[in-house]
Amino acid sequence: MKNILVPIETHSSVDSVLQTALLLAQRFDSYVEGMPLGPDLPDLVAFDMPVSWTVTDQNTWKEMADEAHRRFEAFMRAANITERGADGHTPAFGWTGERSFGDSQIGSYARIFDCTVLGRPGGERGDPRMATAETVLFESGRPILLAPPVAPTKMGDTVVIAWNQSMETARASAMALPILRKAEKVVVMTVEEFRSDGPSGELFAEMLRHHGAPAEFILRNAKHRNSGEAILRGAEALGADLIIKGAYTQSRLRQMFFGGATSHLLNYATVPVFMTS
Q1: In total, how many domains does the chain have?
Q2: Which pTM value belongs to this model?
């Protein structure tokens, strides 16, 4: 986790996003790159759109980018993070972009980073947008780290892997190996009623121990809860400060209508969540 991307937009969780990125950078002496985030522009724009609207819109995007830059840099300097000059031995930060980037641009740029830190999406006005998280998930090929609404004070000491024996969670866990090796405790947690075909949690924990991760296995009963709620309750009981999970092991359309673990975590997680598709 030596290169971390942090798209910055003025939303309700921006302070938590910055704090979550800082915790990850301090753990790995990472380079953190900020960039301004805004909504995607329409693919088609009417030719007779007023010039004044175009200029105002461009100026607004520039102002948003400048504010994002100021906020990002002030936070990093207050945390005593140095600018550029990353040598791999101390955290460092940098900034790219003079105008806000849309979701699709962020999604492609994230391909060269080890992880992208975003705010956990919400349904209220001013919350981080679901479109950003899904674009980075499905277009970058890299993991995302979702910051909770309230900034965490620690992250990565006690890690819960929501092991449902799926390909997606296997991929997420593999990408999270640097975090797992540094953890004090790693719990491979399976919810009994929500398992797919695949290797058992006991076997997976054993394989993680071969990598130097202090992994153990636990089987939990959902107790009539949905899978996402069971994961969050289990993680809370274990004192977890990070959850690792594969995203959308059901189809996104099915989760939209019927719910699922990914949807529940995206709506209710109070600790950072590390995800890949």
Answers
A1: 2
A2: 0.88
